[in-house]
Amino acid sequence: MQLKLCLLNGVLPLALIACDNPESATSPGDPDRAQPMESTRALRPPPSVPVAKPGGSVPGGASAAPPDGKEREAEAEFTSVPKMKLTGDAELSETADGVRIQIEVEDAPKGKKAVHIHEKDDCSDIAGKSMGAHFDPDGKKHGLPSAAEHHLGDLGNLTVDDEGDGTLTIVVAKANLKAGDARSFLGKAIVIHEGEDHGDGESGNAGSPIACAPIKAD
Q1: pLDDT value, residue 63
Q2: Which of 46, 183, 196, 218 is 20 to 30 A removed from 177 (C-alpha atoms)?
Q3: Are 182 and 194 in contact (CB under 8 A)?
Q4: Which CATH number belongs to the domain containing residue 153 in this structure?
């Protein structure tokens, strides 16, 4: 019994010393002390999300789909008048903003050339205007695309460089590629004229047609 009391008397002071010196354990500034880990979740940047741009375009050049969600495309290949070497084609696609048209030509006469969509896809006699008049379902006056009033088929001008190459990209609002629709470009023709469309008169004083491309569903 005396031996147990002696041992307790010896251990108790040591325990009291340890309680009186709590800093004997690793202190906050001790490099050997384990520090709390910071969450990397807050430091990690959020994933990038494509943001729609004005006009229905999204990054990468993709265009928003038409309201009914159906993708419609068409194409047209140019035929020129005799003694004219002009060649080229056009790609059309329906978007939420209208019909997007991309035209590319080669070996064309230099300068600005009027481009219109005509009411028929008959390119058998370009000089004789077998493709009919400008496509105008609304009964408007002729004008440039930027004018308050113009035909639905008025596409403005295509500029041809010294090498004979020319391109034109335009979105025609309120047009579509629906078969049988009154505002559809299907069954019509893209026509290039010899001169510039000045936006006045019945056809912009653009001169005679030199190339024609019937528009067909792709």
Answers
A1: 59
A2: 196
A3: no
A4: 2.60.40.200
Residue 60 in any domain: the answer is no
Question: Across the strands, what pairs with 167?
Answer: 104, 159
- Note if the pTM is more than 0.85: no
- Whether residue 23 is contained in a domain is answered as no
Quick one: 54 exposed, middle or buried, by C-beta within 10 A (0-12, 13-18, 19+)? exposed
Count of structural domains within the chain: 1
Residue 176 has a pLDDT of 98
The answer to whether position 35 is within a domain reads no
Q: What are phi and psi of 155, to 5 degrees?
A: -105, 0
| SS3 of residue 6 by DSSP | helix
In a domain, 34, yes or no: no
Name the pLDDT band for 133 (thresholds 50, 70, 90): very high
Q: From CA 25, how far away is CA 146, in angstroms rounded?
A: 81
Nearest alpha carbon to residue 151 among 139, 160, 163: 139
**Residue 202, pLDDT above cutoff 90:** no
Integer Cα distance of 217 and 109 in angstroms: 29
- Residue 89's Cβ-count burial label (10 Å; 0-12, 13-18, 19+) is middle
Averaged pLDDT for residues 149-168: 98
Closest by CA to 91, choosing from 81, 79, 103, 108, is: 103
Query: Cα separation of 164 and 114, whole Å?
Result: 15
> Residue 124 sits in which domain range?
71-217
